[in-house]
C-alpha cells in the first residue's frame, strides 16, 4: 500500500511548491497578505486552544493541581534544607584578628534523622541461616 502512495504524495508536494512559487512571483502582494492572514489565524486558534484546554493541565502536560502543590512544597523544602549561606564581602582591606570560640562554649549538635528517610519495619525473626547451605 505504501509503495504506490509515496509517488502520489511526492507529486502533490511538488505541485504545491510549484503553485506557491508561481503565486510568489506573479501576485506577490496578495500572496504575502494571505500568508500573514494564515499565520494570524493559526496564532489565534492556538491561543484559544491553549487558554481553554492546555493552561489548566499543570506541569509537563500531566498531573493535577494537588500533585503540583505537593511538588512545589517538596522543592521549597529541599531549597531550605540545602541552601548555602551567601558569601560575605569584606568592606575594609585591614584584616581583623579572628576570635576563636572557646571549646567549653561549643554546643554539641544532636543528629536528627533526615525527613526523607524512614525505617521500614519488617519481620526480623525469619532470617535465613546461610551457613547451612
TrEMBL record:
Source organism: Halobacillus mangrovi
Region called Disordered, residue ranges: 60-133
Assigned keywords, A-Z: Membrane, Transmembrane, Transmembrane helix
Residue intervals passing through the bilayer: 7-25, 31-53
Protein name: Uncharacterized protein
InterPro entries for this protein: SA1362/YqhP-like
Amino acid at each position: 500500500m505504501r509503495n504506490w502512495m509515496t509517488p502520489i504524495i511526492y507529486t502533490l508536494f511538488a505541485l504545491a511548491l510549484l503553485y506557491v512559487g508561481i503565486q510568489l512571483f506573479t501576485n506577490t502582494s496578495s500572496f504575502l497578505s494571505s500568508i500573514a492572514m494564515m499565520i494570524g489565524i493559526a496564532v489565534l486558534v492556538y491561543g484559544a486552544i491553549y487558554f481553554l484546554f492546555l493552561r489548566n493541565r499543570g506541569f509537563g502536560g500531566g498531573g493535577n493541581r494537588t500533585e503540583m502543590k505537593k511538588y512545589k512544597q517538596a522543592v521549597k523544602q529541599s531549597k531550605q534544607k540545602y541552601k548555602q549561606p551567601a558569601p560575605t564581602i569584606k568592606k575594609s582591606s585591614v584584616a581583623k584578628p579572628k576570635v576563636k570560640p572557646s571549646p567549653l562554649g561549643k554546643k554539641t549538635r544532636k543528629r536528627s534523622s533526615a525527613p526523607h528517610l524512614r525505617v521500614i519495619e519488617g519481620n526480623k525473626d525469619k532470617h535465613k541461616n546461610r551457613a547451612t547451605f
